[in-house]
Design brief:
heterodimer, A: 282 residues, alpha/beta, Rossmann fold, two-stranded antiparallel sheet, 39% helix, B: 320 residues, 7-stranded mixed β-sheet, 5-stranded mixed β-sheet, 12 helices, 38% helix
Chain lengths: 282, 320
Amino acid sequence: MADSAHLEALCPQVRRDILRMVHAVNSGHPGGSMGCTEFFVALYFEALQHTPVPFDMNGTNQDVFYLSNGHISPVFYSILARSGYFDLSELATFRKLNSRLQGHPTTHEGLPGVRMASGSLGQGLSVALGTALAKKSNGDSQLVYTLHGDGELQEGQIWEAVLYAGSKGVDNLIATVDANGQQIDGSTDQVLALGSIGDKFAAFGWDVLDVAEGNDLAAVRAGLAEAKARTGKGKPVVVVLRTSMGHGVDFMAGTHKWHGVAPNNDELARALAQLPETLGDY
Amino acid sequence: MELSALINQGNQDTRSGFGAGLLELGRTNPNVVALCADLTGSLKMDAFAAEFPERFYQVGIAEANMMSMAAGMTVGGKIPFTGTFANFSTGRVYDQIRQSIAYSGKNVKICASHAGLTLGEDGATHQILEDVGMMRMLPGMVVINPCDFNQTKAATIAIAHYDGPVYLRFGRPKVPNFTPADLPFEIGKALTLRSGSDVTLLATGHLVWPALQAAEKLAAAGVNAEVINIHTIKPFDEEAVLASIQRTGCVVTAEEHQQYGGLGELTAGLLAQHLPTPLEMVAVRDSFGESGTPEDLMAKYGLNEEAIVQAAHRVLSRRG
């Protein structure tokens, strides 16, 4: 059982990391990162069974996570560092020359915790399927998790993978969709409406779990526990996680404006004032 | 090795060499798995699928999913071999290969059949002539284009022992099987099939046998041609190529591929930097293919023995 107080404390601290990282290089994607903070905290500090050190690329007898929407790398890096995959101080190198913390996650520079490059959208679910099938073949009973943006579901390859997983009953797989309703050009409804995400996955043979309060830590923890309980029953599981982009800072929440824009000095100061430094900045 | 040792042991398709190699791998390496996008028979993967059903993944007509799945399977220690036509193994899935396989450095073997014009009657939509160029451009990608059944089988087995992404290109028609069945396949090591001092013929894939035939014709005309089988396009055996051309002073390249991005341009780039030498390319000239029999197509697009002979005479006259 995870320490609830520690998990609660992580959320504002991870958001501070995200904002300080993107501010330092005046680039990166804070909005989606902040919206998914509770998910990452609940996943890496409770749901996921993993061994950060020594890092095993093959993830043998561990759960494996893939970030398919790689642009929200700031939250991923913060969580990996705070989970012990690498030193917290390395967050200061984000997006700088010769860093292992590339703009989008990659295995290319050997960063522990990353098992596949992502950034070009739509590939992560297929990758996860491959690992899930390898685990079954190896008699490894651990699970494979993914995270996708809702806008990412507009990529055709996602539906190839959704079809395969449902059709073949790949039931050691939990995909999560960050349903924040936003993408670069505006709301998903304006750009290319997705309709009911849950109904679509269900029609492809998935077990669908809707988490209405995706920025409520208790709700996310309960949702991931429920998702895990539904694995091994012949169907892949999808969590439709209703989040708010930019959650945690009042002037950044609920808009696509902060998708790929860093705060300036004044904005950073105002944002950090809303986020207590609970565990120490990097 | 001399031409006298290289007799046609009987026509066979290179894709069957792949199928035979894959089956042998199934029996010797438990980590080898195969994925196919609804072309099991065409790729000759059926024997593997029948003997190792638990290691064969039918993914349906969804090549993008197949490529990324293969990448994901390496996380777990598998050695995935993907099988579909060359067109659907490259152009259709370039971004998946680029990000999830090449950039991520995953141990995936991309096995591509029906490459080039010899696919025949299905026509230009399926006759990819740009695949070698596309795959060559990816950092770290090994590109192999074997010449016959035996070499394709040996290459299939060899790439399982190499840790990293590989593009293995082969074809549909039955062609002469002439390399020894027990010849080991060395990735990146050019194979001199016939020694000569007047002109170097660099050939890959289905053009190797015609190059050997062309060398015989040239010999009858008093021209002593050296024939080198470039089965590995990348890494390119620069040392062997330069050593031969240093002696002959002129070169013809022959490939079933678009001239852009293929063996000809690769050789030209090498020579321009290290050993400027007259070069003639036997390749498709900025064109798509079309329907027809493999033989008619290879003749129309100038990819046969006769074309190689003529190119050799042209390059000899340029060398003077």
